[in-house]
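Archive record:
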Amino acid sequence: MQENTISKRQEGGAIDALYRISTLSGKRLNSVRALEKILDEVMQVFSANSVSISLLNASSDTLFIEVQCGLPEKTRGFELPLGVGITGWVAAHGEPLLCQDVEQEEKYFQLDERVSAEMAAPLTEGGRTVGALNVDSCEVGAFDEEDLRLLVLIANEASRVLENMWMIQQLRKKADQLQSLVLLSQDISGTRKFDEVLHTISREGLLLLSCRLSAFFLYDEKQDLLHLQCLHDEKGLRNYEETLKPGDSLLGTALRGHRQVQTRDLLRTEEHHFMDLIRSENLTSMLVTPVIFEDAPIGLLVHYIDSPHRFHDDEQMIARALADLGAIAIENARLYGRVFDSEESMRKSERLTTLGTLAAEIAHEIRNPLMVVRLLFDSLKLEEQEDEHKGKDLLVIREKLNHLEQIAGRILEFGKSRESFRKNVRVREILEDAAVLVRLKLEQSQVSLQWGNLLNTEEVFVDKGQIQQVLLNLMLNAIEVMPSGGELFIDSEIKDGRANIYLRDQGTGIPEDLRERIFESFLTGKTGGTGLGLTISKRIMRAHDGDLELIESGPQGTTFRISLPLNTG
């Protein structure tokens, strides 16, 4: 009676089931829905109590139950080591297996205590086993060899259907990725901002590779350091800072070798970057792709996944294509930046030329009236004054009149040597005279001058008027950034044969975006400022074989340093 039943089932329902399974290839179903329909057919053909399809996770060498019917809910997504249980043995050996009584089978692994009989057949793709189709019954001896052969036929047909569906899905995915790459190349090719290019590459890498995190590290060749420029997750850009030496991380292998590097276990590789993130977010797998332009490393594009994962060839190809597009876009942005800087420099040169012509005309016009003022001042014979301060002020006025005449002459004789105006002057004298010039301004602004160490005898060979011009510019700038009053500190020292003078205010500091460019012409953060004060001061110091530098700036104040070579003659 049982043989007739089996024969009827094989000839009737099995053929219909095979036909219905084969037609799934032409339907627009996702793979999970197709697997569920296959299970429905298997349940009916074998009158099974439960059926399941387990697929192989190549990254972790485990089987996980992708779809199931009739098994307890707790088994959904269950992972089984490859080779364990009847299902694991079938997937590992690629051969079908029948167990008429699970209590007599050593290979059996219990998921459902109701199961008494079980059989499984391998699912294949491209000649390799990718999973197993499993059938269970609550009755001992419910299946025989004919059932197993029929299950193999159904598993083979299911494999063919799934292979076609997966291939179609992969083709669609590749088409979408290629379309995204084309659109991305069009987008970033016209991007002029360097940071925007880096952010776009990082963001698109996250989407194309379906990663947990995507990062771009920029390589500083001079310091041999990798600086994190941007980090993206599914919510957008993250605020995170990271700097490391290439030799301290697996990242350096990709950078030095100009090749992709991946790992499936970040903790075991003892990575020295993103340590907090790796632990807190359970980051497990990483793909590092170097971004290179004409054999010169620009940086690294890094993708992270929070599960064991082997990045296959297609994913590596997408990452390389993205890195290549990024390298070209980055270089274009850099070239555009250099062109922009050149154009800006030319505009500044034109403005300086116009300014020089205008300055020469003004100097020519004011020279004669200035001479009249000086002659009238000398004719007043005010040298003898009982008031010490007034007497000193008169000396300063005469000195400044001489200085003004020198400035006018210098503008008119631009390019001629200023050596004739230089002489040996004590550093202390320069500082004290500069303080006298701003004495009234300090009092009006409620700024007190605090002296540190003053050099008593050390001399420098300088044009005193020009050095005082630098000091005045710095002191007046300091007064302006302390509108409610404060203290201006002046200190000096001798170091490596040079006299160093420090000026520190108690202002709010220079904006961070201006600090590296404060000595550029026409750059100013003040309303009504010309942007020439620090530029001219820098040139004066360089002409004296010295320098003017910004030492530090922040909410507590700003410190400048003037350095001059000591006169050792």
Q: What stands out?
A: The first strand starts at residue 50 and ends at 57.
